[in-house]
Amino acid sequence: MDLGIAGKTALVCGASKGLGYGCAEALVREGVNVVIVARGAEALEAAAKKLAEAAGASGPFVKHVAADITTEAGRAAVFALGHDFDIVVTNAGGPPPGDFRNWDREAWIKAVDANMLTPIELIKATVDGMARRGYGRIVNITSSSVKSPIDILGLSNGARSGLTGFVAGVARTAVAAQGVTINNLLPGSFDTDRLKGTMAGAAQKSGQDFDTVWEARKKNIPAKRFGTPAEFGAICAFLCSMQAGYMTGQNILADGGAYPGTY
């Protein structure tokens, strides 16, 4: 299927590895120019090189900015390249797992700033330009914990739920009639460094070894496996497609069937 987005330009955050990289790669393969951003310069440069190889000599451009997108300075560095992004994929590293009794105000503010306020700032900076041009796709990578909270991820549960509520409102404003969609993409268990870190925390809490916890988590998923960044990226690319223009304000869950609810 031709997604109809070749030649568009995308900003993909947290794209040096994991789910962010999977999204950037899927977009590049659809002919989308990408600007990727992440904090780690070395990993980001390696990711940009791989994406450029995937794009080919005559394909879309790949640019990278080593910056912390959760800061004003980081966003300024990205937008120094321009504001006219057709696609924005927001993504920030999730807050650390733990016991809520141990989190002080600073921990909460940091979580909300990264996982709620930063996506809102990126939406605010780009959505009106998208509306004027008559096309825009904003995809927020959040978490399955928005639908099914995970006890050790309380910081994430709270901050990402705040973003979900905000998007539910703004996605249904006038921009919806101007060709702009805003959706959230909710990953369940994907084979990433983030999942490994969460499982390490769960193993420590339970007193079990890592492999035992890892395999038990896998067995509890109906698909009996963890997702891959590539298949996550493919879902993201579809949400950015012309064919997905009638989908907005939605929370798309990709979790191998782990969420047991009807709705």
Explain this structure.
It is a single chain. With 263 residues, the protein is of the alpha/beta class. The protein folds into two domains: 9-190 and 228-254, Rossmann fold, CATH 3.40.50; 191-226, no CATH class. The protein contains eight helices and seven strands. It has helices spanning 18-29, 41-55, 72-79, 105-133, 154-170, 193-206, 210-219, 229-239, and strands at residues 9-13, 33-38, 62-66, 87-90, 136-141, 180-187, 251-254. A seven-stranded parallel sheet has the order 3-2-1-4-5-6-7, with helices on both faces. α1 crosses α8. The mean pLDDT is 94. Pfam families: adh_short_C2. InterPro entries: NAD(P)-bd_dom_sf, SDR, SDR_fam. GO terms for molecular function: 3-oxoacyl-[acyl-carrier-protein] reductase (NADPH) activity.
